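For consistency, the fold was encoded as tokens, which produced the following:
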Amino acid sequence: MDKRTENILQDIRETTEFLGGVRLPDTAFKAIAGTNVTTDMLFFQKHLDKGYVADDLAFSGSIRYDKDDRIWLNPYFDGEYNRQVLGTYEVRNFNGGTLSVKGKTDNLIESVQTALEQVKAARVIDRNEIIINPNVLTKQIIDISIPPEMRENLGQYSFGYQDSTVYYRDNKCIRVGTKTEDISYYVDEEGNFKAWDTKHSQKQIDRFNSLEVTDSTALDVYVTEETAKRGQFKGYFKKTVFYEAPLSDKEVARIKGMVDIRNAYQEVIAIQRYYDYDKEKFNQLLGKLNHAYDSFVKRYGYLNSAVNRNLFDSDDKYSLLASLEDESLDPNGKTIIYTKSLAFEKALVRPEKEVTEVSSALDALNSSLADGRGVDLDYMMSIYHTDSKATLIEELGDAIIPDPERYLQNGEVVYVARQDFLSGDVMTKLEIVDLLIKQENSDFPWQHYQDLLEEVRPQRVTLADIDYRIGSRWIPLAVYGKFAQETFMGKAFDLTDQEVADSP
């Protein structure tokens, strides 16, 4: 929200209504990310008509922070006593200037709830008033100059590369990656050019002229409110143009390196989604991340350095990337230094918790389930000391139940947790248990298990109870094909007919 380039905000404004937001303190996600990162919670509602009222303040463009000219922020989050900012502003990163929020209270949940009361409620739209624009059914034009892999896999607001070419995807298209540059010059009251700022080289001026940038094609244009008071440009206004420029070979290499680190870190995060993730595979991915990071920093410096931040800031995952480095001051307290965060050393999304001993069979079961092992009797015996597996099973009682399907198939005794037994396809389990009872199998109390299943037997659902409409995803495509063929072509088709299967 604080970025000076407003093209993304403008795109959002054209398609959504801003309901409100909350700026969280930089410690909100420290337990998860392992570092301090200021985060915004933003709420939007997609508008389906043109009768909404836009929040002009949020979309009016960034303003300078009154306590530090290097900092820009969205006016919605401006003000020392802004109720939507859960803390006080503090400037970090002395070289580039980054705004951080220091929390005021330990009760973050209560503060968030209070701030959320200021967020507007979503508007309820009468579906009968929605008009479908036939122009949405136009043909899709595919840019064949973009590699298929980029078109299919590159996420929105993300950088990617193939060979020596960097690509970037915004909400409209995929294009060859660029960088943001700025150039300043002086103009008179009518906006006529008078002179270039002396800080620019002739090479930079020639490059800007060759791009033929205009105010309408520039990312942003800023003109001082007052004229220069002294010097050779006295009486003229200073105009600064922010524009997109081609990347140099070294800048391409920097972005490619940060893409590799981003992808490696996302793999490390993704594998931790599961309780029983492969620890060996995780260590391999962690090694890959360390190698990618170390190689990059050796050649191009820290991820949080100004040059790397400016190049990669438009990537949606840059904040995640920046969180890989912990910021501190050198022993003299003057220079900012960066070090690797804990994300390079161990699992943070799902930290390893080694349980060595528990005091009851139920605790042993809970530990086994939490570790993604299922009902692992050998593991449970290793952390809960008891005479035998039979004693352990007896102590657990109905907390574990033999899988009737596995037992019926080959006589294999595999225990599952009670909640797993009493969920899923209950009707099939009832049929299997009923069959075992009829076979007069006495190895387990099947009648008792049948009674447990009967308590959770779902009621039969009739067609009248099913809420469906055209477009429901759970309806097979072949059914839509049969409906279309019979309704629009007047022909009866079987659901297995090839013409039905091929129907859109």
User: Anything to note?
Assistant: Residues 178-246 form one domain. Residues 249-271 form the longest helix (23 residues). The chain has a mean pLDDT of 84.
